[in-house]
């Protein structure tokens, strides 16, 4: 596992246990993987076979609880993404039923 410190103050994407995608500048992280993201947006992609439209929700300064974070990755802005035309299968959540 890499150190989270290498992502501090960089643009990252975060996937959560309920299959949500957040993007913004990583401002802080603790040992429990609680994170703070500035200029945060939530990206909601279109699901294949539906009439859904891509959505981008401005969240501002946002905190995510560590228990909901599945992965964090640095954004490579040299690779363009056409969010308007991107489609995919609906993701299952990663929560374990008790």
TrEMBL record:
It is found in: Nucleus. InterPro entries: Lsm8, LSM_dom_sf, PTHR15588, Sm, Sm_dom_euk/arc. Residues 1-78 form the Sm domain. One of its GO terms (molecular function) is mRNA binding. It comes from the Eukaryota. GO terms for cellular component: precatalytic spliceosome; U4/U6 x U5 tri-snRNP complex; U6 snRNP. One of its GO terms (biological process) is mRNA splicing, via spliceosome. Keywords: mRNA processing, mRNA splicing, Nucleus, Ribonucleoprotein, RNA-binding, Spliceosome. PANTHER family: LSM1 (PTHR15588), U6 SNRNA-ASSOCIATED SM-LIKE PROTEIN LSM8 (PTHR15588:SF9). Belongs to the snRNP Sm proteins family. LSm subunits form a heteromer with a doughnut shape. Plays role in pre-mRNA splicing as component of the U4/U6-U5 tri-snRNP complex that is involved in spliceosome assembly, and as component of the precatalytic spliceosome (spliceosome B complex). The heptameric LSM2-8 complex binds specifically to the 3'-terminal U-tract of U6 snRNA. This is LSM2-LSM8 complex subunit LSM8. It comes from Candida tenuis (strain ATCC 10573 / BCRC 21748 / CBS 615 / JCM 9827 / NBRC 10315 / NRRL Y-1498 / VKM Y-70) (Yeast).
